[in-house]
Amino acid sequence: xAYVVDLIVILDDMFRTAANNVSANDAQTAMxxxxxxxxxxxxxxxxxxFAMETFVTRFRVTQRDPILDKIVELIWQYCASPCxxx
Length: 86
Known about the structure:
The protein is mostly helical. It has one domain (2-78). The protein has helices spanning 2-18, 24-36, 39-55, 66-78.
């Protein structure tokens, strides 16, 4: 879950700064920026907190998928602005 959110946030950042001409250096810079900004740590902390909160209710059947809902929520929260297509 954390890696999915990390990847989408990094890709969002990378494509916002490099448009459609992305080099390997742009990708590396986006990953470094993601880590150094503290976003990675906050994303992973939010997911750990979410996992602990939902652990108790994991056997309860719900109509919605709480994991997918949390992934979408974190993507919206950590992308620079609303991610297109999410």
